[in-house]
Amino acid sequence: MTAMTATSSPPVDHATEVSTVLRAVAVRKAYRRGLWPRRRVLSVLEGADLELEPGEIVGLVGENGSGKSTLMKILAGDLLADAGEVERSDSFGYCPQIPVLYERLTCDEHLDLFGAAYGLDPALLERNRAALYESLDFERFADRRVEELSGGTRSKLNLAIALLHDPQLLFLDEPYAGFDWDTYQRFWTITAERRDAGATVLIISHFITDEERFDRIYDLVDGRTVQR
């Protein structure tokens, strides 16, 4: 399997990018549970395929336990597949379903930390930070530690970290699960703006109500992806 990692590459002109940003072929994954002689194998992915083009919002839908998060982790390079091939853009952001945050750091400190990891110029970091605080409406929590934040604000910070470096490809795992209605609408405004700028967004969820917001939707059924 081939998987590239995020780098601090120069800004990409998404509008002129024409190549496929992600291609996954015949991805397989099984988990092994228990100890011999009661050891058993639970097959989750049975040859999932996915191809994403620049400037589209794609949904991946499946029941709980269908393997959605497993596939997302493989696509993001957070988990190794047992078989198959994954090729993707170097410029990507990953928003996991469960926020991975440091309880004793503030929102500002998180954005400073990840801005440095992304290799962002300080001036660009400040511009992107201000834009994300405004678009997600949580600037008033900038100096609050994560341990003081509500679940919804943690979800905002989790998303802001993934968006901070303006990636060409976004992996969003149940991104709006903890959002109120206002934040849900803000999320879709941000997502549409990213798509219009040429970025690609993959959203996974166990249900989709606003199908018209997506360019394409895949269902994950019996370990395989089926386009609607």
Give a brief rundown of this model.
This protein has helices spanning 68-76, 107-118, 122-136, 151-163, 181-196; strands at residues 22-33, 40-52, 57-61, 83-88, 92-95, 169-173, 200-205, 216-221, 224-227. By secondary structure, it is α/β, with parallel strands linked by helices. It has a domain at 14-102 and 160-227: Rossmann fold, CATH 3.40.50.
CATH topology of the domain at 14-102 and 160-227: Rossmann fold
Low-confidence stretches: 1-17
In terms of quaternary structure, the protein is: single chain
Order of helices and strands: EEEHEEHHHEHEEE
How far is the N terminus from the C terminus? 27 Å
Radius of gyration: 18 Å
Average pLDDT score: 89
CATH-defined architecture of the domain at 14-102 and 160-227: 3-Layer(aba) Sandwich
CATH superfamily of the domain at 14-102 and 160-227: P-loop containing nucleotide triphosphate hydrolases
Helix content range = 25-40%
User: What structural class do helix, strand and pairing data support?
Assistant: alpha/beta
Q: How many helices in DSSP terms?
A: 5
CATH class of the domain at 14-102 and 160-227: Alpha Beta
The amount of beta strand, in percent, is: 25-35%
The counted number of beta strands is 9
Placed side by side, the strands forming the largest sheet appear as: 5-6-7-3-8-9
What is the makeup of the main sheet?
6 strands, mixed
Overall 3D shape: globular
